[in-house]
Amino acid sequence: MSSVYINRIEKYMPNDPVSNDEMEERLGLINGNVSKSRRLILRNNGIKNRYYALDKQGNITHSNAKLASLAVKKLLDNDISISDIELLTSGTSSPDAIQPAHALLIHGEIGGDHNLEAMSAHGTCNAGMLSLKYAYLSILSGQVNNAINVASENLSSWMLAQNYQCEIDKRKEIEENPYIAFEKDFLRWMLSDGAVASLVQNQPNIVGLSLKIEWIDVISFANELETCMYSGCVKKDDGTIAGWKELSSEEQQITSVFTLKQDAKLLQQHVIKKGIEHLKRIISRRDFDVNSIDYFLPHLSSMFFKKQAIDGFIAEGINIPEHKWFMNLTRIGNVGAASGMLMVEELFNSGKLKTGDKLLMMIPESARFSYTYALLTVV
Fold first, then answer.
1. Which of 144, 319, 367, 377 suits a disulfide with 86, CB 3.0-4.6 Å?
2. pLDDT: is 208 or 180 the higher one?
3. Is 60 helix (H, G, I), strand (E, B) or coil?
C-alpha cells in the first residue's frame, strides 16, 4: 500500500471578518427584537470574529459550492491543473441543495473539460474528515494517485432572521444554565462560513514539508445515544425524530424545521465524555502514546468546553499539556465540517512546523455523537 500525504492546503474565507457587534445587523433581528442572550452566549463561546457569505445588507454573496470551488482554485494556483486530479471529495453540513450531490456542484463550479470521480460526505462536523478519509483510503489502496479534499460551510444563510418564526428569548434560563443557550440562539452566534481544500497525494513534496496521514479513526455512538443536533426534522418526546417530509407545510413553519437545533441536556452529558472514551480506545488498540504528539488540534464548538475537556482528559489519566493545544475558533468562528482542516491549514502555513512533529486532530460531532481522531506526521 502507498503512503498518503497532504502536500498543500489553502482556505477561502468570504468577505471581511464580522465582529461581535456587527453580527446581528448582518443576520437581522428575529421578530424585530434584539437578542437578549447574544452577549451571554458570546461571552461563553469566546468567539471574536467569524466570516459570512453575506454582504452588509444581509444578501448572500457566495453559495457553498462557490466557496469550495474558490478554495480549490486557490489550491491549484498556477502550477497544478485540475486535469491532473483524479478524485474530488467534499464534506459539508450545509449543502446548497438536497440534490445534486455537493461534490458535483463543486465540480460544476470549477468547470473545465476534465472528468473525474467526485464523492460527497454528508453530516455535520465530521463530514470534512469523512471525505478526507475517502481520499486517504483511495490513495492508500492504489485506486488513485492523488485527490483534492474540500470541506466547506455556508451556514450564515440558515441564520438569517427570515428563517426563524416566533423564537423565544430565554435570558433567565440561560443565566441559570448555560447549556440552554446551546439551542437555536447559541448556534446562531457561533457558526461561520468558509472552505478549505487539501491536495492529497501518494508522494511527499520534493521541496517543502508534507503531512503524512498515519491514520484517521472514526466512530459512531448513535447505537447508544439519541439525536442531539438536528435540522430538517423535529425531535419527539420519546427521543425519535420526524423528518420534514412527515410534517405539513404549516407544521414546518411553526417548528422552524430547517433551522439548526440542539438538545442542550444531551450535549452536556455526552459531548466531552464520548470523545474521551473514543481516544482511550485508540490508545489501547493502536498502542498510541499521547505524550508523543507535538500539537493537539481539537475542534470545540465553544471555548466553554475547553476546561471541561482538559479536566476530563486528566481524570482519565490522559495529559495533553495546554501549550500543545492549537485552536483558531476565537479568530474564525465555528466553520462546522471545515473546522478541523482549517486548524491544520493555519498551522501548516504558519512556518512553525518542523520535520518529525506529530499533530493529533480531534473532531467531535454532536448530531448523533460521532468522533474523529487523526494523526499526522510532518515529513
1. 144
2. 208
3. strand
Determine the Cα–Cα distance for residues 217 and 130; give it in Å rounded to an integer.
10
212-378 shares the fold of 5-208: yes
Sheet strands (E) in the chain: 5-12, 18-19, 49-50, 87-92, 117-122, 146-153, 194-201, 211-220, 229-230, 233-235, 241-243, 261-262, 295-298, 358-365, 370-378
Give the integer Cα–Cα distance in Å for 305 and 328. Answer: 14
The answer to whether 109 and 138 are in contact (CB under 8 A) is no
Under CATH, domain 212-378 is a member of which superfamily? Thiolase/Chalcone synthase (3.40.47.10)
Cα of first residue to Cα of last residue in the chain, in angstroms, is 18
Q: Give the tens place of pLDDT for each residue, 228-245.
A: 999 999 999 899 999 999
Question: What distance in Å separates the CA atoms of residue 325 and residue 359, rounded to the nearest whole number?
Answer: 10
Q: Where are the alpha helices (DSSP H) in the chain?
A: 23-27, 38-45, 64-76, 102-110, 127-140, 171-176, 184-188, 249-254, 264-286, 306-315, 329-332, 339-348
C-alpha to C-alpha distance for 238 and 152, rounded to whole angstroms: 33
Flag whether pLDDT at 182 surpasses 70: no
> Could you give the angle at the alpha carbon of 96 between the alpha carbons of 344 and 196, nearest 5°?
15
Q: Which residue has the cell 518542523?
A: 354
Note the residue count of the chain: 379
CATH superfamily of 5-208: Thiolase/Chalcone synthase (3.40.47.10)
**Per-residue pLDDT reduced to its tens digit, 281-325:** 999 999 999 999 999 999 998 898 899 999 999 999 999 999 999
**How buried is residue 44: exposed, middle or buried, by Cβ count under 10 Å (0-12/13-18/19+)?**
buried
pTM for the structure as a whole: 0.93
State yes or no: pLDDT of 246 exceeds 70.
Answer: yes
pLDDT of residue 181: 45
**Domain boundaries of the chain, sorted by first residue:** 5-208, 212-378
